[in-house]
């Protein structure tokens, strides 16, 4: 079943986070992921407000998780760790 990778982000260092974004896109694509929302308009109804919200679709939870743990994504993530506050989750979807 397909899965969504959902990230809620507050960027604290634009330059370092830009390095993350440059590397993360190809890593996601390499693992079959496709971005369906990236930082667009949103309405915060509950919880902690994070001004950047990203959604990528993968063929399965396993594919999304493999992407996260891949060397390519971990290299990208090394630039985001001290440049942002984030929550990231993977959720299976019914289609």
From TrEMBL:
Transmembrane segments: none annotated. InterPro entries: Dimeric_a/b-barrel, DUF1330. Pfam families: DUF1330 (PF07045). Residues 2-92 form the DUF1330 domain. This is DUF1330 domain-containing protein. The lineage of its organism: Bacteria, Pseudomonadati, Pseudomonadota, Alphaproteobacteria, Rhodobacterales. It comes from Aliiroseovarius pelagivivens.
